[in-house]
Amino acid sequence: MPMASAFKSGNNQAVPHLPSLDFLLSSGEWNDAEFKAARSALPKSAFETVSAFANTKGGWLVLGISQHGEQFEISGVSAPDKLQNDFLSVLHADGKVNHDVEITERRFLHDGKIVLAFHIAENPRSRKPVYLDGDIRRTFIRKGGGDYRAQPQDIERMLRDATADRWDGQPFTRVALAEAFHPATLKWYRNRFHAANPGFDEQQPDLDFLYDWGYVVKDGSESLPTRAAVALFGSLRGVRNLLPRPILDVQFLGYGRKEEMPETRWIDRLVCEENILQTWQQLLAKYLFFMPKSFRDIDPKTLERRDAPAGFRVFREAAVNR
After folding, report:
1. Which domains does the chain have, with CATH numbers?
2. By mean pLDDT, which of 158-162, 226-230, 296-300, 315-319 is the weakest?
3. Cα(first)–Cα(last) distance of the chain, in Å?
4. Predicted structure pTM score
5. Minimal CA–CA distance to 63: which of 89, 87, 91?
């Protein structure tokens, strides 16, 4: 149970909820939890975790947890006050991190052992990337249960997003508004939008809908699509004027990782130059063609068959996050 707590915040946000230690241990490390033994000293990798959480979705850094094989157990820290002060003082020292990060502190007493937990909030896009020691190459991001050094394209994306006018929010002028969108894609999206968000006007004109949600912007008396709108709903002409390369180029292999590579390296290939939503539809259709699926049940809300392959969730997350 909690022994003491402290909260540091620059904007009076609510204190993030910390699940019980038993729950965290049983769940293991993932994208919102990182464990460190830190029995008597603070590991340098703790600050890599700070950078990763601040650049991604935030998470809990928990000190006093040891790992043995696949199992985690509470080992405690020997000098909690010193460890906490060392962590916060180094973190806020000039030059350690390039941007301030918001920290929430928790202290737990469990069977006589003290565990320290720090929630690192995600930084606003205007204060990313968060990197260490004045070296932008020491930018980290969180993937699954690990901290990874950000690739140049990740850093470039964060720098673009940090500008007052994001790249994808800028107006796109290479095609006229009348020929910027793919009508069937927009209809497909709106059908799913209204099914998931009842109460919005389904008869609202498409242009008004896009303007209300920031996909179309005003430039004087003229309405212009944003780059994001063209990427998501664009016509073939619009997408090709926006992006010089195909949106997707994927090969389907006919063998497993541990199998010897056959003479024919792939059995099918999908290259998509259409908008993102069309690309997803084509990729999903190809995936379902190759993957066996069996009927499970009926969705009580939509009355649709639920027969997605067993690995569909993994495929979906990998495809969307790639």
Report:
1. 2-162 (3.30.950.30), 165-290 (no CATH)
2. 296-300
3. 39
4. 0.55
5. 87
